[in-house]
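Hello,

Our lab assistant flagged a job as stuck in the queue for most of the afternoon. It eventually completed. Since we weren't sure the result was trustworthy after the delay, we are filing this so someone can double-check. Below is the sequence as submitted and the structure that was eventually returned. Let us know if re-running is recommended.
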Amino acid sequence: MKSLLSLLTFGLLAATATPASAADTRLFEMRVYYAAEGKLDALNARFRDHTLKLFTKHGITNLGYFVPAKNTENKLVYFLAYADRSARDASWKAFGSDPDWKAAQKASEVNGKLITKVESAFLTATDYGVLAEAKSYGKGVFELRTYTTEAGRLDDLNARFRDHTLKLFEKHGMTNMTYWNLAADQKGAKNPYVAGNTLIYLLHHESEAAAKASFDAFRADPAWIAAKEASEKKAGGSLTVAQPNGVKSEFLVPTDYSPVK
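-- returned structure --
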């Protein structure tokens, strides 16, 4: 007879497992907080000691919390998940009115506000992305990449990633994480992106040097060159807008409290 522990473990796995073929219909949110001068440590402490627990209390799924490897902008980048937009709004309303949050916020801001600017973007999973979940990827760095397409070419870009790019990334030593497009509903002035032409994704590398080596090999791969040429011929031109806005890259390191590490 199975032990109670075994049964409980099996039940938990059954409840949380997601078939590889199942569509991920959750709503995601990428939030960027710009800390006031000298306040990033205090902001991280508030998240570590209070915010993550309160997010969980109110039904918000914590995914990853990062700071840039070269944090010249004094910022925190993090990702959350919700069942849908209505669940998101209800959770944030409850969080904002929670007495424990109000007390934590007040105590942390005795010497001034911790945040000078907030950016937020709502995201939906692509049909080819890896399931976004809290897990450890091991030692290394994360890379946040944002692609802005020419008008009407996001489907072409997604097709190229689905059919070619992800496999070639793996071939050249990169770990595919999550791939998102912007959700159609982008309310509010804090969103710096435009729905309908943006792909945002995360990779994991052993190091920044390893990332450079991987991308150098990827770009020189005949299979990539052929896929790029074919996709651009079909679309009638480049799939991304001209640099520097077409492709943006930023290396991130996880905070000590990040569920994704």
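-- support follow-up --
The delay was a queue issue, not a problem with the job. The result is valid. The radius of gyration is 20 Å. The first helix runs from residue 4 to 16.
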